[in-house]
Design a protein that fits this description.
By secondary structure, this protein is α/β, with parallel strands linked by helices. It contains 8 helices and 13 strands. It folds into 2 domains: 236 residues, 3-Layer(aba) Sandwich (Rossmann fold); 41 residues, no CATH class. The strands form 3 sheets. A 9-stranded mixed sheet has the order 10-6-7-3-2-11-12-1-13. A two-stranded antiparallel ribbon has the order 4-5. α7 links the parallel β11 and β12.
Length: 283
């Protein structure tokens, strides 16, 4: 079942039963960014997120975890805002960060920060703040990369070779053999994925700050068990819900903007194999 609730996350999440959700994967709005639906101060953003994080912890099963996809922004060129780092420190102390993970949009275009007279780099990395218990559910087997030809050749030819990357002694053959034993190569904690395509992405459907389908697919597949339920408190145009549908999972989406609720409903319904239930909450 795919459920889309129309309303604020702070109002809808308390209606979800406790310990009923396997994962939360969401790309929340950021503070101090002008969007068609308004702009939040950092204080307003933290007020919202404290409620959302508390509700995430309540609705998640003991084995569940949550991923918040966030990117720092600037007060002005050359001076970053610190809300993201404060959020990471807070959630790490209050809940626990499973691992530091980042998404790298390697197709990010240059911004005003990159102009020659300003001399800064292009922002292309977003934090995937992964919160949960140290033993939370994750299935490494579904996110392994295929072994490269170079890796296979090294495995076959260099079983005894030792080398010292960053001062650590390793046997190259043993390292590469592990990939064959587990059925693939473990990914890095930096996920290189292009932002989106121009035909079926959230941006192509009228949402200027959507999550790439590939990133949604990756996280939901990694931390949601078979036949499980995932939740996106800031569903936007429904990309997380589409990822859940593609993997035959149940999903709960919450979105306060009626325009995006309708877009999400249309995108999910277009190819939904599972029943789609759209719930509108007045006011």
């Amino acid at each position: 079942m795919i459920v889309i609730h129309h309303g604020r996350a702070e109002d809808i999440m308390p209606t979800i039963p406790a310990q009923s959700v396997d994962s939360v994967v969401t790309d929340p709005p950021y503070p101090e960014i002008d969007r068609p639906y308004g702009r939040m101060t950092e204080a307003e953003w933290f007020d919202m997120m404290r409620v959302v994080v508390a509700e995430c912890r309540r609705i998640l099963k003991p084995s569940g975890s949550a991923v918040f996809i966030l990117q720092a922004n600037s007060e002005r060129v050359g001076r970053m805002r610190t809300w993201l780092f404060e959020f990471q420190a807070w959630i790490g102390k209050e809940w626990g960060i499973v691992q530091d993970v980042y998404w790298w949009n390697h197709t990010a275009p240059p911004t005003v920060h990159c102009h020659r007279d300003r001399g800064l780099m292009r922002p292309s990395v977003k934090a995937c703040v992964w919160a949960g218990d140290s033993e939370c559910y994750r299935d490494q087997s579904v996110i392994l990369w295929e072994e490269s030809e170079a890796n296979a050749a090294q495995r076959q030819a260099s079983r005894a070779l030792k080398y010292k990357p960053s001062g650590l002694t390793m046997r190259a053959g043993r390292c590469t053999a592990a990939a064959a034993e587990r059925g693939g190569v473990t990914p890095f904690n930096l996920l290189p994925m292009a932002n989106a395509d121009s035909a079926s992405s959230a941006g192509a459907n009228g949402h200027g700050a959507g999550t790439p389908q590939a990133l949604a697919d990756w996280w939901i597949r990694y931390i949601t068990p078979d036949n499980g339920t995932t939740c996106d408190p800031f569903a936007g145009s429904g990309t997380m819900l589409m990822a859940a549908k593609d993997q035959n999972l149940n999903a709960i989406g919450i979105e306060k903007e009626a325009e995006y609720v309708e877009t999400a409903r249309r995108r999910v319904a277009a190819t939904a194999d599972r029943p789609l239930l759209s719930v509108s909450v007045p006011g």
